Amino acid sequence: MSVLRISLRAGEKIFVNGAVMRVDRKTSIEFLNDVVFLLEGHVLQAEDATTSLRQLYFIIQMILIDPANADEARTMFARSNELLLSAFTNDEILDGLNDIADMIGRNRPFDALKRLRALIPIEDAIIAGAPVPEVSDERFARPSRLVQGARS
């Protein structure tokens, strides 16, 4: 049996299968079966969704945080992703958006968020008119397979 262990600080939130939990003291939890979760540090607040890719990130995270409305969020994702594919010209972002659409299609929104987090600094550089970070930079490399939860 695979066990996924997560350590949380006092007051930290974790979003598990659509439920929001906050721990009152430093603790560790173990997931003994499949689970979809987001740590508080990976949750984007609505007011911080200030760029196109951050808005897409917010939409994808809603698939995880609000499973009851996941179908609506998936529809929003499809429309937004289509618009972004026609708006961007940067090859790394275009490749990433296609990868992300594939991940969403395979019901892997957690992986899609990780892939999208790697694209946001590229978008920031484009907006700032700065040199676009090299893809070979390990901070922006395509993610390897990401564990979504423990398997029994």
Structure description:
It is a single chain. The protein has 152 residues and is of the alpha+beta class. The protein has 2 domains: 4-41, no CATH class; 45-128. 44% of the residues lie in helices and 14% in strands. It contains 4 helices and 5 strands, in the order E-E-E-E-E-H-H-H-H. The strands form 2 sheets. The chain has a 3-stranded antiparallel beta sheet, covered by helices on one side. A two-stranded antiparallel sheet has the order 1-4. A hairpin with a 2-residue loop joins strand 2 and strand 3. Helix 1 (52-65) runs antiparallel to helix 2, helix 1 runs antiparallel to helix 4 and helix 3 (91-105) runs antiparallel to helix 4 (109-128). The N and C termini lie close together (5 Å). Has a post-transcriptional repressor function in flagellum biogenesis. Associates with the 5'-UTR of fljK mRNA and promotes its degradation.
Descriptive keywords:
repressor; 2 domains; two-stranded antiparallel sheet; 5 strands; flagellum; 3-stranded antiparallel beta sheet; disordered C terminus; 152 residues
What is the topological layout?
Elements: E1 4-8, E2 13-16, E3 19-22, E4 27-31, E5 37-39, H1 52-65, H2 70-87, H3 91-105, H4 109-128
Antiparallel strand pairs: 1-4, 2-3, 2-5
In brief, what are we looking at here?
The protein contains four helices and five strands. The chain is α+β, with helices and mostly antiparallel strands and 152 residues long.
